[in-house]
Specification:
The protein is mainly α. It is 62% helix and 7% strand. The strands form 2 sheets. It has a 3-stranded mixed sheet with strand order 3-5-4, sandwiched between helices. Strands 1-2 form a two-stranded antiparallel sheet. The two termini are 27 Å apart.
């Protein structure tokens, strides 16, 4: 569930590389990338993502620990320490964009624009859902797809190889794919289910997931620029009302909702 289209940090360099004349080295690189996409290990994915997140953090306004937004995030995510053995780390980006995302290396980034619109438990529901995409390996699949797309732009060859370093533009393209990921309806439902169990196991009330969706549904209904943004981003998602109903059924079965 992506809540905003994040500005592409490296789009210009990617387009320049893909539209220029391709030499032999570029063709060979494309072949290696194609092999890499099929052989990426979990540690490979985390390493690439960590490098991208370091770049993104450096180019964003990351609020310090003393900031009220960061203190708020620390409080509401207390107890959320790891997912599938990967330590979670949380930071707040100061921007009016409405966004939150989680990555395979455990990085979770929340935008002040989202925090301004939502109550704490609603934000927690969004975070839980994003972590679900990581836990279900959806983000890894996005990484593989991005590498294949990069290889197609560069030019495929029969060259084989092991995973190696990616160029800045390639790494930026992969990062863009992660942050702006589009998941299938099945994946969105899987992430909803994981988020429910994950939050419950962490001692959080999973009703926050329902309330987060209800807030997004309300924003969409109000229209305007924010409502249109939510509507566009939900176009590939399962029907919001249906998602809310599924979560409500789970809450009732667990005695958490009358």
């Amino acid at each position: 569930m992506k809540l905003s289209i994040v500005a592409s940090l490296f789009a210009a360099s990617v387009m320049a590389a893909s539209c220029g004349n391709m030499d032999t080295n570029a063709l060979m690189a494309g072949g290696v990338q194609a092999v890499q996409a099929m052989t990426l290990s979990d540690s490979d994915v985390r390493a690439y993502v960590s490098e991208y997140i370091a770049q993104l953090d450096a180019q964003s306004v990351v609020l310090p620990e003393s900031n009220a937004y960061t203190k708020r995030l620390r409080k509401l995510t207390s107890g959320l320490t790891q997912v599938n053995g990967v330590p979670l780390n949380f930071k707040v980006y100061q921007t009016n964009d409405i966004n939150a995302f989680a990555c395979a290396d455990g990085s979770v980034r929340v935008y002040t624009g989202l925090m301004d619109l939502m109550a704490d438990d609603e934000i927690l529901g969004v975070i839980g859902h994003e972590i679900g995409h990581v836990a279900m390996n959806h983000t890894r699949k996005q990484m593989q797809n991005a590498i294949m797309a990069s290889a197609a732009r560069t030019g495929l060859s029969g060259v084989s190889g092991t995973v190696g370093q990616l160029s800045a533009s390639q790494l930026g393209a992969l990062g863009e794919a992660i942050v702006n990921a589009k998941y299938s309806r099945k994946q969105e439902t899987q992430s909803d289910d994981f988020a429910y169990d994950f939050l419950k196991a962490a001692g959080k009330n999973p009703a926050c997931l329902m309330r987060g969706f209800q807030k997004l549904q309300s924003l969409e209904a109000k229209g305007g620029q924010t409502g249109q943004m939510v509507s566009n981003l939900f176009s590939s998602h399962p029907d919001t009302a249906s998602r809310i109903s599924r979560i409500q059924a789970k809450l009732k079965a667990d005695g958490l909702l009358k």
